[in-house]
Amino acid sequence: MKGSGVVMDDAYALIIGIADYLHVTRLPSAVRHDARDVRDLLVNPRYGGYPPGHVTLLLDGEATRQAIIDALSGLAARARPTSFVLVYISSHGGRVVSGAFAGEYILPVDAVLASDEDLARTAISGDELTTALKAIPARKVLVIFDCCHAGGIGQPKAVSGSLIKSDPVVLARHRIFLRAAGRRQ
Description:
The chain is of the alpha/beta class. The protein is built from 5 helices and 9 strands.
């Protein structure tokens, strides 16, 4: 039926699905399939209506630390205040409990867990991710974390850390964070 599709010309997405890690225990292949399904739903004109060129999909070997950082920077460069931005990350998450490298981390495909220092050097810290997300000028941002320790990763603009660190669903000025796990999970 002509004209029945959704058009989201001012929408952008970054979809990450990592199942086959280089140095970390693999996750089920459903992680990769879910990421593809999210992308397919977004670019389907009947449902998401995102232009295919506005959706970046990073699967397994493509989802290196540098590629993820570059993709987040790309979102910040392309999005405008009127844009809608979706970030979906399905991967391992990590946590260092104490010491110089304490904090939560997203584990890209090339993360190394030999030591806390290696993890901090090869993963993406919650602070790094927060900074990258804050750089996105869009007022409407939805971030979905499907990983362990997601409760401490990423913070929306202008919200206190205590609320963010404890709540699996956070809404702040049209920025929504959905987390599959709490900070210690």
